[in-house]
């Protein structure tokens, strides 16, 4: 009985070793395309891969550090059902590669980037998550509200220069606002514009001024303005509200 058990165990062990060897053969076949001179060949991968959000598009940027054999890259998204080829002309130094993927529906995407050489060898993949913004984000935006408008005619006082024109007092601005464009007509009939941008003081949050002055504004005429937004500080596109017309009468 003991002898029969040993024979059975030996047969099972031999069968298991046979399966392992077959698996090794399959793995060897899978990697055969990368073999060159007995070594695995992997082109340099997309290094420091980053994604930048945009309006129905996403920008990807990465580095090719040290592999002169890289001739292109392929970017996949939507579970690799969509892709784009990116030709690369490598130089002797570190190269920055950028590609903008247009026509994206609003939402989050996972991007996989593989580089390849002229022989078709593919690198290890690099992955990043990017986001495209669109109509849904646009519909959340609102123009900054005007609290009051006054016309000033101030004489010079000491080192403070004289001023003649309008002054807008605002309600607070959205934290996503990046600037406000204002268009108006001067007293001499010429067109003028002012761009109000946030104040950046080291150690303090970025914020807009509470007032904006319109030099030479004709107080009998309206002015118009719109607010610009970025959904992210790294976004490649700016979103705008419609113009609001302010009539002083």
Automatic annotation (TrEMBL):
Pfam families registered for this protein in UniProt: DUF4998
Signal peptide start-end: 1-23
Keywords: Signal
UniProt xrefs under Gene3D superfamilies: Immunoglobulins
Protein name stated in the entry: DUF4998 domain-containing protein
Organism: Pararcticibacter amylolyticus
């Amino acid at each position: 009985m003991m002898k029969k058990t040993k024979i059975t165990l030996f047969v099972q062990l031999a069968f298991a070793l046979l399966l392992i060897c077959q698996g090794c053969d399959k793995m060897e076949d899978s990697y055969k395309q990368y073999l060159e001179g007995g070594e695995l060949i992997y082109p340099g991968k997309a290094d420091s891969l980053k994604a930048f959000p945009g309006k129905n598009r996403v920008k990807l940027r990465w580095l090719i550090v040290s592999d002169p054999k890289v001739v292109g890259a392929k970017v996949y998204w939507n579970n690799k059902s969509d892709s784009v080829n990116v030709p690369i002309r490598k130089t002797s130094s570190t190269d920055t590669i950028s590609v903008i993927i247009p026509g994206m529906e609003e939402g989050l995407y996972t991007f996989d980037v593989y580089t390849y050489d002229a022989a078709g060898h593919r690198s290890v993949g690099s992955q990043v998550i990017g986001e495209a913004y669109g109509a849904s984000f646009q519909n959340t935006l609102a123009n900054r509200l005007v609290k009051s408008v006054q016309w000033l005619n101030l004489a010079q006082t000491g080192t403070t220069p004289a001023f003649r024109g309008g002054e807008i007092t605002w309600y607070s601005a959205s934290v996503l606002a990046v600037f406000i464009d204002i268009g108006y007509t001067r007293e001499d009939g010429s067109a003028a514009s002012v761009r109000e941008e946030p104040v950046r003081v080291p150690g303090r949050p970025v914020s807009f001024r509470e007032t904006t002055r319109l030099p030479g504004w004709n107080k009998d005429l309206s002015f118009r303005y719109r607010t610009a937004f970025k959904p992210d500080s790294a976004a490649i596109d700016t979103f705008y509200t419609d113009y609001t017309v302010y009539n002083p009468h």
